[in-house]
Write a structure and sequence with these properties.
Layout lengths: L5 H14 L22 H12 L7 H12 L28 H33 L3 H12 L1 H6 L6 H19 L5 H17 L7 H14 L4 H30 L21 H16 L10 H19 L10 H28 L12 H16 L5 H29 L18 E3 L3 E7 L10 E10 L7 E9 L2 E8 L16 E9 L8 E11 L9 E2 L10 E7 L13 E2 L2 E3 L3 E9 L7 E10 L8 E8 L2 E8 L1 H4 L11 E9 L7 E11 L2 E2 L3 E2 L2 E2 L5 E8 L2
Antiparallel strand pairs: 1-2, 1-8, 2-3, 3-6, 4-5, 4-7, 7-9, 10-12, 11-12, 11-19, 12-13, 13-16, 14-15, 14-17, 17-18, 17-21, 19-20
Helix pairs in contact: 1-2, 2-4, 4-5, 4-7, 5-14, 5-15, 7-8, 7-9, 7-13, 8-10, 9-10, 9-13, 12-14, 12-15, 14-15
Length: about 725
Amino acid sequence: MAGGDEYHHYNYVQHVYQTGTLPDRANAATSPFRQASGQAPLYYWVSSLALRIFNAPQTNGADLQDYLNTVAKNPWYTPPDLWNRQDNNNVYLYDGTVSLPDVEQASKITRIVSMLFGLVVVWAAHGVFTQLFGQSNWASVGTAIFALTPMFVYLSSFTRNDTAATAFATLTLWQCLRILKGRHSAGQWLLLGLLLGLAGLAKVNTLTVGFAVAATIIFWWRNHHMTVLRAVINTMLVALPVLLTVGAWMLYGWIIYGDPFGTGTHYRPDQAYETALSLGAVVSLLPNVYVTYWAFLGSTTYMSPWAYLLLGLIVVMALLGYCRLFSSQHRPNPKLIRQQAILIIVFGAAAIVAMLQWLRTVHFVTGHVLYPAHIVIAIALTVGLSRLGAWFQGGRRLVQLIAVAIVAFSSIFAASLALIEAFSPPQLWATDQLPDLQGGPFDFDGVIRLLGIHLDDNRLPQHGLYSVTLCWQVLQETDRPAAFSVRLTREGHDIGVRTSIHGMGHYPSSLWHMDDIFCDDIDIPLQQSPEPATLYSVQVNMLDAETGNFDWLASTLGGESVPYPFVAEVIASAGDMRSQMPDDTLGSNVNFPQLATLERYSVDGDLMPGEHVRLSLLWHVTAKNNANLKQFIHLYGDDYFISLADGIPHSNAYPTWAWQVGEYIVDQWDFIIPDNLLPGEYNIRIGFYDEQGRLSAQNGDSPSPDNAALLVSFEVTE
């Protein structure tokens, strides 16, 4: 289901439909309604009435919640890169793998209710813009910006109370503007109070429009020079329907739960911060609020960044319009314009303050919380655009066209494309279409084959994400729930792990067909920075998606069991490690022209028989060498030779084929000087070799005998 928590709202509707009562907020942590159980009931009552009219099926909220949590939702749904729309989205609810026709039928009806409320909102928005702009084209432009904002269209498409709240908030503002223009009978005040009460009964934060209502009462009183008594009467006419609607619900919440606003259901450990965030922390969250105000689809889906840039262009255009000084031309009734502006500003300011308080206390707040005041933001944009259009001759039509085209493109094309990319099954490939693969194949329980892994870059970043591609082939259909895990590991220590259902959340094993070939592009978050000059292995395992047990057994094509399927090696570059060298270093003239120059070295310990010595070498890589060379450290004397150390450089962690030109690599070796050395002159020589022989070595410009470069000499005395 859409929106992450749509099923909570749907279950609320079903509860009202089946029982005629409100959910018990005391069980919010475990009930099928969760935090939605504290929401005001208007939308849910209207939707339950629609279910009753159409004799819709009754469904069990606990069963639906269990299905979504164990079958239809990827337990690892939060993607590390929110802009990757194909990564880790929820599995289809209506994918045909589990038959839920009753839920499908009933939820379509509740979604239609949301759509009808959305149509009411558009009608009310046009009424507001007509009050402000008359019959000019700007009224239509403002309505289009309001109606075509992608997030508004999305909110109007699924089971949730946002469009109902936005509808009554917009209707309330419209009525305020109508009264301000002279409609002030007792019936008009009662209607205003009823709309305000229904707004609060749809969603409690919509009561912020009450500040516009209060300003309307004050302005009407001052404009018409009425008595205080008359103002009090008008206030009472407004307050009466408010008290009978949202007031009654708030009284119920206060008496039963001590929570008149119903917000207590959000203040659970998994929903609320232990202490309210600081102002600085809240400011850091505002960019996400801005982006998600324009569009945040499904549970994790953003549109393309280009779509948000285009929508931001409307904001920039509006700000440019506000920068223009107001025209000196005569404007009708400037007092009315000022009062209209104040109504709109106090409503918007109250909504922003409420949102900031929500940001300080509750996790995962997105821009949808501003939608009761969506009309205010649409007005602000339209006014700025109208001023910009008046700035230069012939500019009005161009500004109108650009603004409407941007929101229409974003809503109709960009949002639709994002949803298609996010929820469509992955593309199926033919064998000859696959990218270059390494590290496979491995069969998992004879059901699916990992064909291999593709790496665009085998070098790890120091932080952020590392991307790989896994390609799979289905060997046989199965009902067994599958997931996979990719690990970046070395000697049992993981620096990055990513687990997901195949298809990154939307191609579960229940949809597999024999011979399907598909690839998963995987972003692996680095949980810690990799050690410089270190080789890490990429390990792939499969697990049961319901139990989490790693019980899908891997084997080679020959049937040999593979407990740890390693599919690739990736490199954490050395970079510049000069700061890791000891302070007491010595210069060196050792050079291996086909690989590196030894810049400096350090000897920690006495070069004496039986002593432990640590040799630190600082290599400056001067040439790329793809050979897997070993390094040796040899001790020579008169008629004496012994190998002190031998192996892959950097403690077997950074082979020479991984060295990159320009790197400074610190390589340390520990060894013991033999305790049976006879008196005499000895020297330590170093070099590199593989099965082809030793690498050419030099001391300065002179070739080294046997390609073993002299490093240091010492004398053993009696």
